[in-house]
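Researcher: I'd like a candidate sequence for this fold, 129 residues long. If you have to choose between options at a position, lean toward the conservative one.
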């Protein structure tokens, strides 16, 4: 899943997207209309310990703190091993074991900042009595 604001930043032409989709039940149990879907390459790691796969992304227009969500099937496809408590993911490559590390000190701060900026946006609807 890729969120619409992140997809717009990629600058990909609309002729590459598939617009024949049905609604999706969102994490908050709301019904979300999918914008479209697209197949995109994903690179994990840095050279020489890098692997690349193509995945089908659903483009969704809803507020979130994330840019994309990568599914379990993709992570299983690259044989990824997750270590959430260390913010670490490891996966095999042709040149050894690749790794992606998060920053344990800045992760909570970045997440909180993203949520605060989303909360400061004005409401989409107004109620008049």
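Model: Candidate sequence:
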């Amino acid at each position: 899943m890729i969120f619409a604001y992140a997809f717009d930043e990629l600058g990909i032409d609309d002729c590459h997207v598939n617009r024949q989709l049905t609604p999706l039940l969102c994490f908050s149990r709301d019904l979300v209309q999918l914008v479209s879907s697209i197949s995109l390459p994903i690179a994990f790691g840095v050279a020489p310990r890098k692997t690349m796969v193509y995945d089908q992304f659903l483009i969704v227009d809803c507020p979130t703190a994330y840019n994309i969500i990568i599914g379990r099937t993709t992570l299983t496809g690259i044989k990824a091993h997750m270590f959430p408590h260390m913010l670490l993911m490891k996966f095999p490559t042709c040149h050894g074991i690749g790794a992606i590390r998060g920053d344990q000190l800045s992760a909570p701060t970045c997440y909180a900042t993203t949520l605060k900026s989303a909360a400061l946006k004005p409401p989409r609807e107004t109620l008049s009595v």
